[in-house]
Amino acid sequence: AVVSTQSTGENKGKDGFIGVAPVDAFKPQNDFGLYDMVGNVWEWTATVFGTDRQTGMPQYTLRGGSYIDSKHGKFNHKADVTTRMGNTADAGSDNIGFRCVKDVSKEEVERLTAKQEL
Predict the structure, then answer these.
(1) Given this model, what pLDDT does residue 24 score?
(2) For tag attachment on the chain, is the N or C end more exposed, with fewer CB atoms within 10 Å?
């Protein structure tokens, strides 16, 4: 989804949604048919980020940013594919989610990427 917060940090729903948008609310922005690669919710991963200093619990990597982050990082975090932060496994929020994936054949990847110049 589109990052919907403004420079004030207030969610005004300019993308048509207050908070998280349904996963297929916007057409895929890529040839693979992937939705919401950045900006709807932080993507929870199994990659260890570090250790929480206060609890000693492992932190796992969250990536991408969410609807409460900004395009350029002027407030909260920068909503970008390279943005990373850590959080403990007991954390929960409406701006944290996970991505379901499936394996595809080499032929499928070649078909999807054939029209792109690498």
Answers:
(1) 81
(2) C
pLDDT at 117: 47
Specify which residues 12 forms β-bridges with: none
Residue with tokens 């403004």: 6
Residue 91 CA to residue 94 CA, distance in Å, equals 11
Please, where are the H alpha helices in 15-118? 106-113
User: What's the average model confidence in pLDDT over 88-108?
Assistant: 87
Beta bridge partners of 60: 48, 87
CB 64 within 8 A of CB 97: no
Question: Per-residue pLDDT for 47 more than 60?
Answer: yes
pTM: 0.66
Q: How many CB atoms lie within 10 A of CB 59?
A: 18
Residue 8, pLDDT > 70, answer no
What distance in Å separates the CA atoms of residue 50 and residue 68, rounded to the nearest whole number?
Answer: 23
- Whole-number Å distance between alpha carbons of 104 and 30: 16
Q: How many angstroms separate the CA atoms of 63 and 80, rounded? A: 8
